[in-house]
Every structure is written in structure tokens, then in C-alpha cells.
Amino acid sequence: MLSWRPRRPYALAVGLMSGTSLDGVDAAVVRFEGEGLGTTAELLHFHTQPYDEPLREALRRLCEPGAADVQDLCGMNAWLGGRFAEAARAAVSEAGLAMADIDFVSSHGQTVWHMPEPPANSPFLAPSTLQLGDLSVLAARTGVPAVGDFRPADMAHGGQGAPLVPYGDLVLLRHPDRGRLLQNIGGIGNCTVLPAGAGPDDVAGFDTGPGNMVIDRVVQRLTDGRLAYDADGALAAQGTAHEGLLAELLAHPYFVQPPPKSTGRELFGSDYAAELLARAESLGLSTADAVATATALTARSIADALRRFVLPHLRIDEVIVSGGGARNRTLMRMLAERLPEQRVADSGEFGLPGDAKEAVLFALLGYHFLLGIPNSLPSVTGASRAAVMGKLALP
Ligand SMILES: Nc1ncnc2c1ncn2[C@@H]1O[C@H](COP(=O)(O)OP(=O)(O)OP(=O)(O)O)[C@@H](O)[C@H]1O
Ligand SMILES: CC(=O)N[C@H]1[C@@H]2OC[C@@H](O2)[C@@H](O)[C@@H]1O[C@H](C)C(=O)O
């Protein structure tokens, strides 16, 4: 059992987030005070380091079952530990601090595969998830304790192992009188449902489906790689979503599957985008119309999930959006149009800038792990009990 306590009345941490978009690693320098639901977090500095194209390509390959090679997987795991340490050190130095001031780093890791419900084609496939970025390398290269590998503890108790962010949302963003839906739009879209006055047993959360992943892929393919994403939603703004194709896309069984549920590149990766592109081509859609359709798919799937699974049971006053998708103005407009009864706002308004939010919340998971506080939410993941999720490596 850990008996860790901060050496000062507060703790300083670096939270590291490397998401499913494979766009880079985010590092948040955070100051924590208090314990449990009384914890407060102050973001001192946010730093992001984009991945270059060869690294993205190498990671994409590792995310593909037929293409991934065990030698590459093994080497990348340790290599990324060093890459994450570099990001942590840069963030700390930019914050005007030294690594010696930092109590711990806490890392999400790079997901390469997430399999809460494995296919039945082999007796050896257990529910599992794999995040790369070796914690021992991270601890050695930063000189401070490194916490990470959170998801397996929840899965070991029968949970989905995702989404984990709702725990941090509960701690930092619950409101006594307002019902809130916190919607992150990263590669995948994931939401946290926080009823007014929510406690740990009242939180729900699930992955809504594609976030930017499908939009990015469609943009990359239709511009022959000239554009990596639809900056500010400019392309989508010039087009019109094709209602027929949209209806076909929204018929995917994931959207009607009730929570708890989580998804990723496995369902909404390049194969899914290739199908969308093939249908768009057969319908003769322009690039702008195809991108608008992919953008509407994300907006509608989020709004439909709210109507289908949340609003029949409770009141939601505010939809607070974070993640790179919050910068896509067309997506935000489409979302607000579908949700006329809620105020659709940016997470920055609530003291947690949308780009930094996940890195801050993974630092919080590490903080509570070190304090020995259960940091999972079985009401969200479907696990049989709460767990103190995380693993520790010492420098
Ligand atoms: N200015 C912008 N306009 C439109 N889209 C943007 C903009 N900036 C970022 N994005 C989108 O946001 C994506 C990155 O989002 P984010 O960093 O939140 O994802 P992630 O953390 O990797 O994903 P996840 O939360 O699913 O793990 C980019 O791939 C891009 O599609
Ligand atoms: C296995 C995995 O990495 N899942 C990610 C992914 O990206 C978004 C969505 O799918 C979410 O379930 C999760 O990340 C966030 C940070 C979470 O666990 O809350």
C-alpha cells in the first residue's frame, strides 16, 4: 500500500495526454490541493508537442492488427516513454519551474488497441487495452515518480476501461444546481453526464462515436494529404451535408447501443472512413459536401446520444465542449443547432481550457492514485467495483 503524501500543503504535477488523434502529446503543469471531491486543480502551464508525420505513420501502423510488428511495438513503448519525458521537461521549464519542484508525472499513454469486448475467434483474447509509453523510462528521464497505465485496473473488474475523464469532471466541474454534459471532441467523441448536485454514483459517461477521426481522414484523403484536418471547419462551411448518406451512417449499430460503451479506431478508423468516401464518390458529392457530411455525423451522433440516453432521464442545462473539435466552428454551429434547449459553451469558460483539459484530468487521476483514493467510476464503465487505478514507476 502506498503511504504517499505531498511534501508541501500542495502537490505539483505534470499530466501527459497523447490521444487517439495521434496529433501529439500535451503536457499540463498542475497544482493540486485537497483530497477526494474537495480537490482543487490550478493549471499553471500548458505545453503541446506535435508529432511529425513519420512518427504518426509509425503509430498508425502499430494501431493496425495485421500491420503491427512486435519488434516495433516493443521499441516504440520505450521510445515514447522518452518522448513523453521530453514533453514534461519542456512544460516544466516553460512554467519557470525545475523538475525538482515536481512531485510526480502522470501519463495516459498512447492507446494502440482497446478491446473491452474481444471477438470470440480465439480462446486467448481477454478484455484488454494497450497504452504505450514505458513508465520506467518516463521516471528515469524526468527524475520523478511516474504514474500511468490506468485503464487495466477498471477492466480487471469487468469495466470498459473507458472513458476515465468523467471522474475528473465530477471532481472539478460538478455544479449544485445545473445539469451539465461535458463533451470532449478528440479523435473520438466522449461525454460525461453530471446531473445537478451529482455525487459519484450519479455520473454517467460514454463514447458518443467519431469525434474528429472521420472528418480528419476524409479531409486528408480528399486533399491528397495537403490538409491534416479541416481548420476551423472552413471546408465543411462551404458544403452541405447529404441527408441520405448521413442517415446511412447514423444507422451504425454503435449509435443505438446503450451505455456503458466505449469505442475507438477499431470501429471508426480508416475502414469506416473509406466506406464513407466510397459512398460519397458514388453519390457524386463535392469535397466540401463530403466534409460537411462527416462533420454533421459527429454533431448529430453527439446530439442524438444526448436525446436518446440522457434527456429522457434528467435535465441538462449546459453542454461544455472541449478537445480539438471545439475549434471547428462549423461543428460547433451544427451542434448548437441540434441542441436549441441547452447552452453550448467552450470549456475554457469554466477555467479548464479545452486543449488542456484531458492532460489536467490525467494528472488528477495520478494524484488520487498516489493518495490511495479510488479514482474510477463503475457507474460509467460498468465495472463491478471502484478501483485505485494506476501503476507507479520510481526514478
Ligand atoms: N483549429 C481547428 N479547427 C478544426 N479542427 C481542429 C482544430 N484544431 C484541432 N482540431 C482537430 O482536433 C483534433 C485533435 O483533437 P484532440 O487533441 O482533442 O484529440 P485527442 O486528444 O488526440 O483525441 P482523444 O480525446 O479522442 O484521445 C485534430 O486532429 C483536428 O481534427
Ligand atoms: C482506450 C482509449 O484510449 N480511449 C480514449 C479514446 O479517446 C476518447 C475516447 O476514446 C475515450 O474513451 C478515451 O479517452 C478519454 C481520455 C477517457 O478515457 O476519458
UniProtKB/TrEMBL annotation:
One of its GO terms (biological process) is 1,6-anhydro-N-acetyl-beta-muramic acid catabolic process. Its EC number is 2.7.1.170. Keywords: ATP-binding, Carbohydrate metabolism, Kinase, Nucleotide-binding, Transferase. It is an enzyme of class 2 (transferase). It catalyses: 1,6-anhydro-N-acetyl-beta-muramate + ATP + H2O = N-acetyl-D-muramate 6-phosphate + ADP + H(+). ATP binds at G19, T20, S21, L22, D23, G24, V25, D26. InterPro entries: Anhydro_N_Ac-Mur_kinase (IPR005338), ATPase_NBD (IPR043129). It comes from the Bacteria. GO terms for molecular function: ATP binding; kinase activity; phosphotransferase activity, alcohol group as acceptor. The keyword tRNA-binding does not apply. Pathway: Amino-sugar metabolism; 1,6-anhydro-N-acetylmuramate degradation; Cell wall biogenesis; peptidoglycan recycling. Catalyzes the specific phosphorylation of 1,6-anhydro-N-acetylmuramic acid (anhMurNAc) with the simultaneous cleavage of the 1,6-anhydro ring, generating MurNAc-6-P. Is required for the utilization of anhMurNAc either imported from the medium or derived from its own cell wall murein, and thus plays a role in cell wall recycling. Belongs to the anhydro-N-acetylmuramic acid kinase family. This is Anhydro-N-acetylmuramic acid kinase.
